[in-house]
Amino acid sequence: MTGSINIVDEITGHRRMRRNRKADWTRRLVRENRLTVDDLIWPVFVVPGTNVAEPVPAMPGVERMSVDRLVEAAKEAADLGIPAIATFPNVEMALRDETGSNSLSADNLINRATRAIKQAVPGIGVITDVALDPFTSHGHDGVLRDGVIVNDETVDLIARAAVIQADAGADIIAPSDMMDGRIGAIRRALDAAGHQDVGIMAYAAKFASAFYGPYRDAIGTGGLLKGDKKTYYLDPANGTEALREAALDVEEGADMLMVKPGLPYLDLCWRMKDAFGLPVFAYQVSGEYTQIKAAALNGWIDGERVILETLLSFKRAGCDGILSYFAMDVARLLAKRG
């Protein structure tokens, strides 16, 4: 103190930032971002069979579900207010081949799941992944020819598969393969088939990440993958290239943009939202989920608080929503808090 003048007031110019933090009610009044159930998309794994709900060992709390069990789960998700689910199939090995031809079957696993969900729970959105990796014998997202993932043949296949998924009732097609030109090809194919109302959520920036391991086990591709996916997924070092990828997707007709993985690429979420103004989503992938879940199960972190903090970080980074395996847990928690 110097006389009646407080030295802190001299330093800060009477701007004391803590005044707005002094009580719960003031903190709520000035809170800039909020997480709600409307921000959640629930990724789910579908398996063949009936009455199947098998745990994914590398993802504690996550199950692979047969179509009938998935329908029940979708009803619960809708009751909790979750806007949409994203489906990922674990296809029988006997149906996987070099070109992923089962992706073109109208009665394949992902399309059966879509029809069943839309019939039983018409109010929930269904987002389908049109990549070939669940259908290929080599685990890649495209057609493998002489050790090369061929771009144009893959694009032709996924555009055809997208129409079949839309025919089954998919509301949004989400191509995760990162082939050049796929968004435009899918948009043209959907429009030509009369599916002008079906949206495209582009995996605009999908990185060649180390965070996907548990997911690949969940869909049964982990042990199949020959080589890596670095010739078509983005280099984790490249942010400007990711923006160029997103710009092309916007030009080709994407309705929404996605960044995958999430937390390691929050900068891209912000840059895409700022650059394009389209709805931007982040995928909190399996490796992110498993790290948090394992630490929480071991009592090393407060799992509930960490989950909410990480999801809120996506909102702060400009995301309109988050694909998260925590979606159901968070929806229940938010409902409890009112």
Q: Examine the secondary-structure arrangement and name the CATH architecture of the largest domain.
A: Alpha-Beta Barrel
Structural Rg: 22 Å
Compute the separation of the termini in Å.
Answer: 46 Å
Please give the largest β-sheet: 8 strands, parallel, barrel
Could you name the CATH topology of the largest domain? TIM Barrel
The CATH class label of the largest domain is Alpha Beta
pLDDT averaged over residues:
94
CATH superfamily membership of the largest domain: Aldolase class I
Strand content: 15-25%
Strand-pairing-aware structural class: alpha/beta
Shape: globular
What is the element layout, followed by pairings?
Elements: H1 7-12, H2 24-29, E1 40-46, E2 53-55, E3 63-65, H3 67-80, E4 84-89, H4 109-120, E5 125-129, E6 143-145, E7 148-150, H5 151-167, E8 172-174, H6 182-192, E9 199-206, H7 213-218, H8 239-252, E10 256-260, H9 266-276, E11 280-284, H10 286-297, H11 303-316, E12 321-324, H12 327-337
Parallel strand pairs: 1-3, 1-4, 1-12, 4-5, 5-8, 8-9, 9-10, 10-11, 11-12
Antiparallel strand pairs: 2-3, 6-7
Helix pairs in contact: 3-4, 5-6, 8-9, 10-11
